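Handout, page 2. Input:
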Amino acid sequence: MRIRAFRLLAVGLAAASLVAVSATPAVAAPIVACSKATFTNTSKTTSKSVMSMCTNPAVSGGGATLIANFANLNKITAKITWNNHKGVTNYTVTQKGGPASANHCHLTKGKKDTLIVSTGTFVSGTGAAGKALKGKVYKESLCVPPSLKLYLNPGSKITFG
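Output:
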């Protein structure tokens, strides 16, 4: 009788743990994720990124152009103009060095390129993109080689939301 009660208790605990595990919320997918980007410096204080292969074309238009202004490194701004007249979104951006465990950057002269993680806070927006991305955060992981020709951390995407 004791063995049967112990088995019932064990089954009950196992069932309860399954309920607890299934009640954990899943991480939401980003509203837009862009898997390709090219980067060019347009001046000493601005750069241009052309993002493509973006998900959710109803919001992203499939891609966008980002102009970053870093004249004041304490207040970096980004203006994103989405393709196909989907609108414009504006962000304030912070940057920090990325963790070594996430650095998949290339080797340049035997040394890994620097990983920088940028996080943008939504400021304003227009059109379908402005409505969908209002209050959402954008994130990107960039590799910075000595040549300063930036590229996305291999395997990463620029995400919004």
